[in-house]
Amino acid sequence: MKTILYAGLLLCGLAQNVSAEIRTVTLLVPGMSCPTCPITIRKALKQIDGVNHIQIDYDSKTATVTFDDEITAQDQLTAATNHAGYPSEITSRTQQE
Fold this sequence. Notes:
It is built from 3 helices and 4 strands.
């Protein structure tokens, strides 16, 4: 009986790990109006657990963020930029394997 229980728990743990995905979203940050704005936006996004990579393009007013969706959620990214004074919205999403 214990063996069956342990096997079931192991399978549940494996199923949870399989569902974790690395995702990339692009945020439109229209308030990015000066060359120092990307620094503030990057600092705000870096503070979120699970964020792996941030690429900011000042000319297009976008921030592309790669993150682990098991650790953080997309709305945390927009909340971070909003809290830093730069409201943003998600314009595209991709999933990496």
